Hints:
Layout: H1 8-43, H2 46-75, H3 82-87, H4 94-99, H5 105-125, H6 132-156, H7 185-195, H8 197-209, H9 215-246, H10 256-281, H11 285-308, H12 322-344, H13 361-391, H14 400-420, H15 431-436, H16 438-453, H17 459-485, H18 489-492, H19 494-518, E1 521-527, E2 532-535, E3 538-549, E4 554-562, E5 565-567, E6 570-574, E7 580-584, E8 586-589, E9 593-602, E10 608-616, H20 618-636, H21 642-648
Antiparallel strand pairs: 1-10, 2-3, 3-4, 4-5, 4-6, 6-7, 8-9, 9-10
Amino acid sequence: MPLALLDPALHIVILGYLGAGALLAGLVLGGFSTLLSFWAGARESPVFIQVARRAFYAAAGMTALASVLLETALLTHDFSLAYVAEHTDLSTPIALVAAGFYGGQEGSLLYWTLILGVLGSASLLASARLGERVAAYAAGILAATLTFFLFVLAVVASPFELLSVTPPDGLGLNPILRDGGMLIHPPVILAGFASFAVPFAFACAALMAGRADVSWIRHTRRFALLAWSLQTTGLLLGMWWAYHVLGWGGYWGWDPVENVALMPWLAITAYLHSAQVQEKRGRMRGWNFGLVILAFLLVVFGTFIVRSGVVPSVHTFAISAIGPWFLGFLGVCIAFSAALLAFRAGGFASATHPPVTPVSREGAFVLQNLLLIGVVAVVLWGTVLPLISGLFGSERVVSTSYYERAAAPLLAAILALMAAGPLLPWRRAGRPTLRALRWPVAGAAIVVIGLAAAGVRSLPALIAVPLAAAAATTMLTEYGRALLKRPEILVRKRRRYGAYLAHLGLLVAAVGIAASQLGQQEKDVTLAPGQAVTVAGYTLTYTGSEQRQLADHTEFITAMRFGAQTLEPSRATYSGLGGQALTHVAITTTPFADVYVVLASTSENGSASFRVFVNPLVTWIWAGGAVIILGVVLGNAGEGSLAAELARRRIPITLPA
């Protein structure tokens, strides 16, 4: 019998009490796994290590059960749960009702915990090759993280809190979230955040066990790539959502919550590059530990920013009791990580390796790491400055110009390294390398001449675009050499050439960002029916408007003729949500630019006010993002799935009964 047909009181018992009970059981199991894992790891007891690991699997299972119960409550409109009543109503489309699972504070935290449990279980299933102590300590760190999240869910902010009186309908979803992007952006970015915990756990476990070798990197490489890929996709989807939904003509505003999603991505990008140096040359061991730990600490810091409500943002949740707990968790993680790094610092150096030669691939990786961490420092300072200055009574506002001035030179240097780095040998560059650099230099020179001939006088454009062209020339040259000499090397060394493809995608996106930021034109205009406006050579004619009454909102729609197309910028008002209004942007794409129209206001005489943007090459950003992900997938396809590796090692993929 469907739950919706049961007696309401029984329905509450099944979904409310059982959900809360599952979280509490997971909390107990997670705490037990944490303590037993550390104890068993110190004594290298295989039996108790296995018991602790199974307790982690059981805690993850309880999290999955709680997730199923919450989703069931949402889909059956069980408004006895405060979470369901606050984030859905009877008129919400079913797809968005299901997405309500991660649309609010408590539900998104449960989703995060679910992903942490799943990925943590997958990483532990294949961890036997690392040795008993490393595997046990990693299980303990993952279990401790899972336990903290379950504690917050069970004690501080439960999604199964019951209302004293069950309302006939819910409050409904925030209008700004009533978009298809809601179905894809939050789950991807949250999964990305959760996945950072796996490399962190194994890095700390290796430090605790005194293992500074490369084994933990090889074990967690797929999880680090997964974290990077999810974060990359989440950032791109967030930019796409902001561009299509928020109606301000842009996609990245250096918002604090955007910043805290970017910083871990920068840190893990640095790690994925420096890990190659340790794998091939045995260097940068301390860097790799530090970068993985930094990435996770930035995730926890970002979670505190988002969930405490201490900064104003369209992305943040309301101020709640969760913030102080995450601040405390961040403090514990910093103290634990710093102590580990300080205690093991003496084991990172190696007398067998001479100093890194600056003009070499190792030197390029070191410089790239420094530049990426420099960008992290710039973004972090801009994010925390309003908070720090506010504590002293004079809150300072950080404008976008700060980020552009401070980060742009670092990003330009990174583009230059992308052009030169792949051409440098591992030990020391010689004349053949210098001769190889002629191709990227020629590519940059041709683009500079082309931009100057086209009348471009913007210094940032004359720097960024040629550098991107130089880097693209390097990647294409590498592909050309492989195809002409040994085409089979593209498959045999797919990691390298997949990375080159991802770099090409990044360069395409970088050109799109530079063009859309530097070449954007906009105009505010009020038009009567029949009047036209021209922006950057594109002409739009306002033809009229109409009002439509839909099930849950009123929509005022205007029509603008653009060639053979009709654009319909509109404004929707949701009376059931206190009259909240949402702008629906009209966008059309030409081969060279997006024409982006926002309805600002309307008047009784039929005229309407619009803001019209022309954004050059925005589609290059989305296309470049797709190429990035394609490069990662192709570069790592065929290395063997986790299931295949477990089967090869005869590790059973079963959960305990």
